[in-house]
């Protein structure tokens, strides 16, 4: 494959062997807009501006799951954080996590490659298949979870416990349609959906605020760093997906600031609103949407948020297809998204709810990508990426880069073992006892699992440069 030309697009790719696009390979949507390429070995069109990135990530930052999981920030009944502490944790955790998301977005804008294809430069093509498979598993899992969330939200608005299958089918069909024309879908989000979501959020904020806000100082600050760590993890969950969209960015600057600002504002707003609704529902996360439905015309604005939730399932299904293309570069993107959309819908029809074990398993996979981002970023900006990554199918394996990644994963699990199975938790708690380590409030699993592999990767890069000299 020919090397990418530095002048081929704004924000020249910092990589080798990623091909240029040609007029004959351009894909267009029904409105005539240039669309994402069908196969991996075609450079993507650079059409997304700051406002496109901002709208996309603002929509992704608002989530029905975010409203209900505000309870994880507030803390257990009887030991809740004060409202001031909870909001501060939301702001700090979101800003830190979204800065990491912005770095992944920036790398995608510079290389022009999807997220998992970028790992060819870090690990080599064959070794990149390992994180690619893990990402496929988690994206499918979260895609199913989102369809279940959408159907549950639709049932709440319709005041019915039936017709789940119908809502799943409708959500799955809409999700699949969005993935067929991804750049056109982002344009629709910017022009229409983002404004409707903002109006709904403003309406609920005003209505819930009129019902009174608890004393911000009532409660404590114990568990503040744990809540902050949880918010970091939520933001980082989109790291393995970011480059799939920012590869279409006109400039790296717009990719970074669009994703950072849009997602930060939306997630802080979403979780803060969730806190208000939770406190007005006596701290019961199962009744949180009663607060939204309890205001005048609340069902209408909640319906807007339910419909908007399809951008979450869209992101998971589309990024699954992008990950599969790292394994099958010649596979048609439209076929992949269609098959994955149907698969996700069928699984959602068969599953009533996720078991705690599988939810924790998704969390385990998520802990893989915190240290992976650290290794990716350091090697891209300070290591081999400075001279141009090899993103071709023949990219040689770089076994040494597995070491800091595995080290970061071990640090994460050592500090906060994921409860996927008894033997797994026992192993890490035994390691804690052997090393006389007791997790403290300041021992953030996400931050330490990022810093340790980042330093290890920097040391490997420095050693490699000295060896070369």
- Strand adjacency order, main sheet: 1-4
Look at the helices and sheets and give the structural class.
mainly alpha
The helix fraction, in percent, is: 55-70%
Order of helices and strands: EEEHHHHHHHHHHHHHHHHEHHH
Main sheet makeup? 2 strands, parallel
Give the SSE map.
Layout: E1 15-16, E2 27-28, E3 34-35, H1 50-61, H2 64-68, H3 70-74, H4 83-111, H5 115-123, H6 129-158, H7 164-180, H8 182-210, H9 224-236, H10 239-246, H11 252-279, H12 288-293, H13 298-308, H14 310-327, H15 333-350, H16 356-382, E4 389-390, H17 402-415, H18 422-434, H19 445-468
Parallel strand pairs: 1-4
Antiparallel strand pairs: 2-3
What can be said about this structure in brief?
By secondary structure, this protein is an all-alpha fold. Helix content is 67%, strand content 2%. The strands form two sheets. Strands 1-4 form a two-stranded parallel sheet.
Structure description:
By secondary structure, the chain is an all-alpha fold. It has 19 helices and 4 strands. The strands form 2 sheets. The protein has a two-stranded parallel sheet. Strands 2-3 form a two-stranded antiparallel ribbon. The radius of gyration is 22 Å and the shape is globular.
